[in-house]
Design brief:
Number of helices: 11
Distance between the termini: 18 Å
Shape: globular
């Protein structure tokens, strides 16, 4: 509920600032800044100069990386189609094998993503979008394609970046050039995602070590936010034991990293551990993975892990599904550029793209539908 109040307050402040600036400042004084009721777009050419300096220092390196990106692009396009087709086959013909690895859901904040994850996913989106568009810009300048502008935008609370190439120059470019530019964004996302996966493996222990308390009831006197619960009456807390029944007669002992908390019982209990935690005022928890070198603050460790987890999830998700040959995605541009050499007739090429888009959209929609049919409605 608190997060909704923050969002409403942010929206109200944003609208007030927008109205004041529209009255006080002229359109000319805003320059490259465009204001909207709940968004702004800032265009600049400074990033283009940066791209040119980076490319000019090591053109061979960026040429090699862009060629690797094309090879990876083929792999990502093939894998994305194969994954969706195989995943759908599992739902249809081997439902007994369906598990969390088969989940396919769109990332929509407030619908498929819980609102409390907004801070983590905003950081992830910012990093993923800026590196994605930045790599498009670098490769475009490597290929001598003029960029009209680059920029940053904020749509309500969602950050992002963009690179705006000259459409005429891009359309006249050779197919290989367009393939390099199209594949560059997903290649950057794949690199970012894999780097963060390795960071998680290096910085954090591979298994959870209890649960961390994220929210408590108002009447919870002894347990508090940030406590890490590692055991209840001698039973270690884990994904397997959280819903295991705990039996206690006179005393309940909750083991946390800051010490044991004892509760005297009015009557014997035999109930799942999760119910017991709810009974002592724990409202919301999450699994806790400690760092190999502790920071000294479990909540800081938890937040660090969640930021990394969301970055790798968003980066790898965008890397794979952005290369699906669906209109408006890079995968469609990538494949169209490849097919230009064989299909000279634009109408035939367009018809082929429409057909492939329809197939991929159907595969994606069916995967999402079977995910919710199997697991019910849930939020990440």
């Amino acid at each position: 509920m608190v997060i909704y109040l923050y969002l409403l307050a942010f929206a109200a402040v944003w609208l007030i600032i927008y109205l004041v600036l529209r009255v006080v400042l002229s359109r000319e004084s805003l320059g490259n800044l465009k204001l909207y009721p709940l968004a702004f777009v800032l265009r600049s050419r400074k990033a283009i100069d940066f791209f040119d300096r980076v490319v000019d220092k090591s053109p061979l390196l960026w040429r090699v990386l862009s060629n690797i990106g094309v090879a990876i692009g083929f792999g990502l396009t093939a894998f994305s189609i194969y994954f969706l087709a195989k995943n759908l086959g599992t739902y249809l013909f081997a439902p007994q094998q369906v598990g969390p690895q088969n989940i396919v859901v769109p990332l929509i904040i407030g619908v498929t993503i819980r609102l409390e994850h907004i801070p983590y996913i905003l950081i992830a989106l910012g990093i993923v979008l800026i590196t994605h568009e930045g790599m498009h810009g670098l490769v475009a300048r490597l290929e001598k394609i003029r960029l009209k502008s680059t920029g940053f935008f904020l749509a309500f609370i969602f950050p992002g970046g963009f690179v705006e190439p000259d459409e005429e120059e891009f359309n006249k470019a050779p197919p290989r050039t367009k393939m390099r530019v199209a594949a560059a964004g997903s290649f950057a996302n794949l690199v970012v995602g894999l780097l963060v996966v390795f960071l998680i493996m290096g910085l954090f222990l591979p298994m959870e070590s209890g649960v961390i308390v994220l929210e408590v009831e108002g009447n919870a006197a002894r347990i508090r936010v940030g406590d890490v619960i590692v055991g209840v009456n001698g039973v270690a807390v884990s994904q397997e034991t959280l819903f295991q029944n705990i039996t206690a007669k006179d005393m309940l002992v909750v083991e946390t990293l800051r010490g044991d908390i004892s509760y005297r019982l009015k009557k014997p209990i035999n109930m799942p551990m999760a119910w017991i935690l709810r009974g002592i005022g724990v409202k919301r928890i999450d699994y806790y993975r400690p760092m190999r070198i502790p920071l000294g603050d479990p909540m800081a460790e938890y937040n660090t892990f969640k930021i990394f987890w969301w970055i790798q999830l968003v980066a790898l998700g965008v890397a794979i599904f952005n290369m699906l040959p669906i209109y408006f995605l890079d995968g469609s541009l990538f494949l169209s550029s490849l097919l230009e050499s064989w299909i000279r007739d634009e109408r035939k090429l367009k018809a082929f793209n429409i057909g492939l888009t329809s197939i991929c959209v159907t595969l994606l929609a069916l995967n999402i539908a079977f995910t919710y049919k199997t697991f019910g409605f849930f939020q990440l």
